[in-house]
Design a protein that fits this description.
There is one protein chain. This protein has helices at residues 11-30, 37-65, 75-88, 90-93, 111-117, 120-129, 143-163, and strands at 130-131, 134-135. Strand 1 and strand 2 form a beta hairpin. By secondary structure, the protein is an all-alpha fold. The two termini are 27 Å apart. It is elongated and about 70 Å long.
Length: 164
């Protein structure tokens, strides 16, 4: 299981950004004409090395960021799920799943990425029991309806990814 991060949603992705910043600082030091040539050359080589680490971390984070991107989708269930989503989820998550800003400036999680970051068990648990400001729907929906919503959100999210 990957650890979530505050910037990219993945700690490894966040670390890659921090390492990239360090690499840029080193590369900028290499441009400082006031420093001795050997020191600038060392800063350049270290900057390139650190930059390659940042790129490797970022590529790895991206490859693992959406482990459920190719999860199978049941079109019939998705059609049923759309009706349920429209009734219970659309007011907060929006027609496109990206979330609607509430009066306090808060936006619920973007379902178009979250659906690919979690397995069915996690998604089912979250829909049933709620999370954060999201209320649980276990008293309103049965398991097959929750499964249908998951299928619909997968279809919607894949369409959103195609549109980006």
């Amino acid at each position: 299981m990957r650890i979530p991060g505050p910037i990219t949603g993945d700690l490894e992705g966040d670390v890659s950004i921090a390492v990239l910043i360090i690499a840029l600082v080193l590369l900028l030091r290499a441009l400082d004409k006031k420093s001795p040539r050997a020191q600038r050359w060392g800063a350049f080589l270290m900057g390139v090395g650190v930059l390659s680490i940042a790129i490797a971390l970022y590529v790895d984070a991206q490859q693992n960021a959406l482990p459920y991107l190719n999860a199978p989708v049941d079109s019939e269930q998705a059609a049923i799920g759309q009706t349920i989503y429209n009734q219970y989820c659309m007011d907060c998550h929006g027609m496109d799943g990206r979330g609607i800003t509430d009066p306090y400036g808060r936006i619920p999680p973007d379902l178009t990425t979250h659906i690919f970051q979690h397995d069915d068990a996690y998604l089912t648990f979250t829909i049933a029991n709620g999370q954060g400001r999201m209320p649980g729907l276990k008293n309103l929906l049965i398991k097959s309806q929750i499964d249908a919503v998951i299928q619909y959100v997968r279809v919607m999210a894949k369409q959103e990814l195609g549109a980006r």
